[in-house]
Write a structure and sequence with these properties.
This protein is of the alpha+beta class. It contains 3 helices and 6 strands. The protein folds into 2 domains: 72 residues, no CATH class; 46 residues, no CATH class. The strands form 3 sheets. The chain has a two-stranded antiparallel sheet. It has a two-stranded antiparallel ribbon with strand order 2-3.
Length: 140
């Protein structure tokens, strides 16, 4: 569940006015495999002997190194930043809510069963009772 919540929301948050997420500003750097240190497990030589001789000079395939430089809004509202909201229309035992809260996202869960609703509240409050970085409680 964690990959879905993280992939579907911005780590930085969203616009408090329209809900548009902030997007990551990244810098990409291409690193050739044959230019890495020889003790790096990703290193591959640029020249081969024997059965692989026909691929000489083709060892320049590489890796991309990506680093976050900051965040930018995807809207023009210039409003405050708030945590992204995760919606679970079939909440059940509250696993999605638990993951959302642990990752500092807000959460809205919908559940028809009062028993499951209480179970979800207990699970989320038990696991997430500390304060987040902004000093606000993140329990249910």
């Amino acid at each position: 569940m964690s990959p879905c919540v993280l992939a579907g929301t911005s780590e930085h948050g969203c616009c408090s006015k329209c809900g548009a997420p902030y997007q990551r500003v990244v810098e990409k750097k291409r690193i050739r495999r044959n230019e890495l240190e020889k003790d790096d497990p990703r290193y591959r030589p640029n020249t081969y002997e024997g059965a692989y001789e026909d691929i000489n000079g083709k060892g320049d395939a590489g890796y991309s190194e990506v680093s976050t430089k900051g965040w930018e809004p995807t809207c023009d509202c210039h409003a405050d930043i708030v945590p992204c909201v995760v919606l679970d229309p079939f909440m059940g035992a509250g696993t999605t809510g638990l993951v959302a809260k642990k990752n500092l996202r807000d959460f809205v869960g919908i559940e028809l069963s009062p028993e499951y609703m209480e179970m979800a509240k207990r699970r989320i409050n038990k696991s997430v009772t500390q304060l987040d970085l902004f000093g606000r409680g993140i329990g249910v």
